[in-house]
Structures are given as C-alpha cells and as structure tokens.
User: What shape does this take?
Amino acid sequence: MSAPAVHSLWTTTAADSIGTIPSPHIEYGQISPVLIVAGAAMVGVLFEAFVPRKARYYAQVILAVLGLAAAFAAVVALAADGYGSASKAHIAAEGAVAVDGPALFLQGTILLTAVVAIFTFAERRLDPAAGSHRVDSFAAQGAAMPGSDAEKAAVRAGFTTTEVFPLSLFAVAGMLVFPAANDLLTLFVALEVLSLPLYLLCALARRKRLISQEAAVKYFLLGAFSSAFLLFGVALLYGYSGSVTYARIAEVVDGTVQNVDPALAGTMGNDALLLIGAALVIMGLLFKVGAVPFHMWTPDVYQGAPTPVTGFMAAATKVAAFGALLRLLYVVLPGLTWDWRPVMWGVAIITMIGGAIVAITQTDIKRLLAYSSIAHAGFILAGVIAASPNGISSVLFYLAAYSFVTVGAFAVVTLVRDAGGEATHLSKWAGLGRRSPLVAAVFAVFLLAFAGIPLTSGFAGKFAVFKAAAAGGAVPLVIIGVISSAIAAFFYIRVIVLMFFSEPRPDGPTVAVPSPLTMVTIGVGVAVVLVFGIAPQYFLDLAGQAGTFAR
Amino acid sequence: MNPVYYLYLASLLFTIGAAGVLIRRNAIVVFMCVELMLNACNLAFVAFSRLHGNLDGQIIAFFTMVVAAAEVVVGLAIIVSMFRARHSASVDDASLMKL
Assistant: This one.
C-alpha cells in the first residue's frame, strides 16, 4: 500500500462528514463468567479501601467465594444453553473470545479449583495466633521488611494481607479468558492479567519471607522474559497474516484466504515470519505450562511461594495455559501440524523423562511436587500431540482430574508443621503415618493418583491421553510415557514408604488440625481421586461432548 | 521507505534485550532489558501495521504500553522489596534455594 493511502487511513476521515461510529456488539451474557469474577475482584479492591480492618477478612472471603460460585453458575447456565455443543458454539465479543465446549469446560474447572484454593487461602488455624489475632499463611504486611520493627508491629497489631483475595480473583479472571481467547491480542492481555497477580501472591508468605521474595523475583523476571517472547511471536504472526484473529491467521496459514492484497501476498510467502512467530508464541505458552526447556522457574517458585498459592498456581495456571495451547495448535496452526508435531514430540519426551528423573533426587516435598507437575505437563502434552478430537477431550479430562488433586496435595503440605512453619524437608516426613495415620493416608492417596495407579483419577487420565496419543500415531511417545510413569511411581512410592515404614523422628513435625475450610479442599481432592478413578465415564462423556473448538 | 528495515531494527533491539536479560546481573537492568524487548515488539507491530495498511498493529502497540506499565508497577514492587531485605538487587545473590 502506498504511503499516501496509508496516511489517509487516519487523516482523511476528518475531512469527510463523520458518521456515527457503530458501537461494538458485545454478548455480555456469554462472557458473564469473566465479567462476574473481574467485577468481584474490583469490589474486593473497594473493600480494602472502605471496610474496617476487622471485618475485611470475612467480607473478602465471602465475596471471593460468592463471585466464583456465581461465575460457575453462569458457566453451567451457558453449557446448559447448549453453547458447549458444536452446533451453537461461536465466537463472541467481536471475535475476541470463543464460547465453546473446551472454553466452558476449562472455565468451569478453573472456577471450581479456585474455590477450593481460596479455602486454603482463608485457612487461619494452622499458624499460631499472634496475640489474640488468628493469622493465615500470608505476610502481615507485604511492604514491611522481613525481621524489621515495622513487621513486628504489623504482626502485633494483627494485620493480615486480605489483598490476596482480590488478587487471586484478578488472576482467575485472566485464567478464564486465557483458554477462550480467540485473537492473539486477547491472548497476550489475558496472559498478563493472570500472571501479574500471581507474581505478587508469590512474594507474600508469612514464614520464610526472603525465600518467598526470591521466588517472586525469579517468577517475575522469567515470566516477563517469556511474555516478551510471546509478544514478539504475536508481532511476527501479525506481520505474516495482517491480522491477529485466530480464524484469519488459520486461513492465511492454510492458503484458503480470499481477497489477498499485495502486501499480504508479499508476507504470506515468507515462511520465516510464520515459523518463527509460531515458535515464539508456543514457547511463551510452554513456559506457563512448565514444559522442560522452559521449566527452570517451576521448582524455585513452587518451593518459595506460600503453599496455598503454590497449589492454586500449579492447578489453575496449568489448566488455563493448556487450554490456550490447545486452541492455538488446533485452531490457528492446524495447517502447520506437520511442523509443530515433531517439535512437540521432542518437548513432551524430555518433559516426561526430565521431570520424572530429576524428581527422584529431590529432598523437599514442595520441590518434589514441582518436578512431578513438570512430568505431568509432559503426559498432558502427549494428549495435545494426538491432534484429534479425542486428544482434546482427553486433555480436558486429565486437566480436570489433575487440578483438584494438586490443590489437595498442597493443602496437606500446609498441615505438616514444626516451629519454623511448614516442615517441607522430606526427612521430617519420616514416620508420619505412625503419628497421624489419617493425614498420611490422604497424602498417600494423592501420591498414588499422581503415580497413576488403577482405580485413581491419575490412571483414568493417563489412560485417556495415552490412548488418544496412540490412536494419533504417537506409539513411541506412549511407550516413553509409560516408562517415565514407572520412574515417577518410584519416587511417589518412596515417599509413601518413608511415611509408613520408617521410625518417626523425636523432633519430627506436628500435624496441625485445620478448620473445615482446608478439610473441604482435601476432601474434594480425595473425592475427585475416587470418583474419577472408579466411575470416570460421566466425566469422560462430558469432556467428549466439550471436545470441539469454535472457529 | 522499505518497512523491512524497521523489522531488522526491531529484531536487533529484541536480541539486544534478550541478551541483556541473560547477561546482566542487576534485577533492575534485567527488567529494563525486558522492557526493551517489549518496545522492540511495538516497533515490529507498527512497522507491520504500515506494511499491511490496517490499524490493528498500532492499537496493539497501545495495549503493549499499558501492559508494560502494569508490569513495571508489579515488578518494581517485588524488586524493591527484595532489595530492601537484602541490600542487593543482584540476581546472583538470590540463591537461597540452591541445593
């Protein structure tokens, strides 16, 4: 396009008579889950400003849970209205978000996971009370320097960081948009909306604050680094196709695009733009997922963040990021399947094997769970690689099964404590089964589910993704997956043996008795393990019905 | 004026930023290098916008600026709190979790 013609885009309209600008057509009802959560988050910010400090905790917890529950009700209403089925699924809000089966399924999963995670955020019986005030796992005052007089004064005054509730709601709002994003700009903004609150939440641990701040710095710098890569990928894909909407890019990639102008004809032929752009965007998403070449942040951040935040992050972020990755690969880049499949094969293989092998050497329970989550990302990638409707639904099922168990497992970690807070070193867990058989048994159930023992949710999930991968022609990948499952089972079983068959240490940790909030979180985790493990059919059907993307 | 030169410049700035993130040791400087990468993206967006003759890229550049500003707010808060606790903003010193 010539220079004057481009210039006229924003100059000549002033000379013409200015007509009415058509207002964008937004289907508010169909994006109501996001709006409800974002609205609740903003009301939460107002609560911080206007509600007296004493009443803030209850106000924030009730608001957060009500907001998430209302959003979940909206998701269910949309699904009952038929938006999950292929016939009615469509693109809403001027092409910005999709309302379809995978989006609704993942949004429902994220919302329920967030509810149980909020319960662990609100737990106030584990840490010893500061004076007459009960405290949660978050710093009395994030701005007060660790060990300073200001911090001591804040603790004495019984301050709590109730900002964590609106922050987590903002993160959930980003996570709801992330798997539904239908253009690359929405994808990028959703990524930032979900990440920025998480960086802050990581820095807010009550105990071990230096480690917590360090985790936040690492997560922030690496997260910002990766989102810059994602953004450059978006820029290159925009340059390639002249548009950021998924459908348009897919058409240009396939070569089925109509009315090609000369500029587009020039850039369409440039495969470097497409390949580098797609690679950079996928890289940004794989970082969020925690797949192996981009997993370096995972163990440090999982270890340093407050444990309730770790559980929330490990479960909900993974669900959202896999949703976005699935949509990108299946809607935008199906024309590139033969290019991305070999790369994802490699990533899946090193993720499964790397996660499982490095986990064996870990001595900290939170780091161990972090490496286990890396290995699980590899298993889920095996389902992504199937490139078939079965692949989509198996990944959806796996994510639903995995997320509640993860939140539950981290909730158990918050219970095992000694004088310094949570006792996360594995040696302290020795003989836990003798002292508190119930907690150890529940944790063993979670570990067996992670290992994928039959009759647990992990087995049903792994079976689904491996079956889809094998049907998609990735048999070697399935074999490697089974081998690395066996390696992973070794260290899960090792923890169980440590808990039940070794002598308790005299200076061992105590198990705190939680409030009903954490009990609900753990109970939901156990229920999901059993229900998804013994009677998975209903949920497999649900995921199967949800397995079609709107274009 | 060939828009391709702007893309070369954007790629160069992006590479300088990425190299800076990997090489520099001060958290603030690392963060500034990330901002340089985001600005390189902006330049690419605007250049492509000109190339294709639509305004999407210019609009996205505004979104990127807002996101970068929000990132500064969060990032500086975290880096400053770490600096106050340790009297150092070096990312090499942040190694409490090394085994």
